[in-house]
Amino acid sequence: MATAPFDQVDVDYDDGTDESPEDYPHIHDKIEKAIEVTRQGLEQYENPAVMWTGGKDSTLVLYFVKEVADRFDLEVPPAIFIDHYQHFAEIHDFVDHWAEQWDLEVIYARNDDIGEYVEANDLTPGDDIPVADLSEHNRHHVEHILEYEEDTFPFLLDTYAGNHLLKTVALNDALEAHDVDGVISGVRWDEQEARADETFFSPRHDPEIYPPHDRVQPILHFEEAAVWEAFWNFVVPDTVEAFPDDGYVPESAEDLPEGLEPFDTPVSPKYWEGFRSLGSEISTEKTENEPAWLQDLEGTTERAGRAQDKEDLMARLRDLGYM
User: Fold this and answer.
1) pLDDT band at 303 (very low <50, low <70, confident <90, very high)
2) In Å, how far are 128, 130, 135, 139, 289 from 150, measured between CA atoms?
3) How far is the C-alpha of 200 from the C-alpha of 184, rounded, in Å?
4) Cβ(173)–Cβ(322) under 8 Å?
5) Of the N and C termini of the chain, which has fewer Cβ atoms inside 10 Å?
6) What pTM does this model have?
7) How far apart are CA 301 and CA 135, in angstroms?
8) Which one has a higher pLDDT value, 190 or 323?
9) 104, 79 contact by CB (below 8 A)
10) How is 287-314 classified by DSSP, letter by letter?
11) What is the pLDDT of residues 59-113, one digit of tens each?
């Protein structure tokens, strides 16, 4: 049951229940719903923010946010980028570049306690960090929320403790610091089993677990192929002046219209290289050499290149506040 200030939020928390992507068969059906959800997200919450990883899903959501804000004379909220210290360097460059191009305010959510310890001790991913050396805030999460009983944990995303501290704690701390009440994210039904029962508006109101807020999820109903269809027919043409207005799907980095390079498009460079999912530099491998959108999107798993593709871990992390 929602509690104040969510008593004043007029959204349907059941919207999307028992639905699937098949209920939105055409790309225009998907876009229409995404615009509807995005508009409510921008209008209903006092301090919304957009989760942005630099990946295709969150960039598509950011596109909808910008378009809806412009169409309905609303403010573009800040974007939250979780810096877990193990990103591909190209992701940082991509986010910095497009934040400047789109005049975005970006909140960089980091677990500074761990970042400073890693730097001071010259650690690399996989090295152990003693729990006793953490701040009281982080020890509380490890010992009382995770109920983690080991003396150390590895500096890695693909572990329960590492992922929670580097991502979830960083995110929740940022939500609290900026008083965010609506988190607009790029979660999709088809991406993971742990997300299959999500609704377009999902309450997170338990103050014992996270700063109370709602999740606003405009592209739940998009499949991976539909995300790319939206990119090449709407996002890129609307963003890149020299790109064909009626859309175009490049077959390689050399197959762009004359004068354009991948860097000129709001498409992360790792997708051009063959990555379909952008986890971390340590734990993600590309699945093929051809660009992500040309691969077998229906017959293969989107997150196959990521080491952390464990549904039980994902479900537990989501219970603690991760996306």
Assistant:
1) low
2) 11, 9, 16, 12, 40
3) 10
4) no
5) N
6) 0.92
7) 38
8) 190
9) yes
10) S-SS-GGGS-TTTS-TTTTBS---HHHH
11) 999 999 999 999 999 999 999 999 999 988 899 999 999 999 999 999 999 999 9
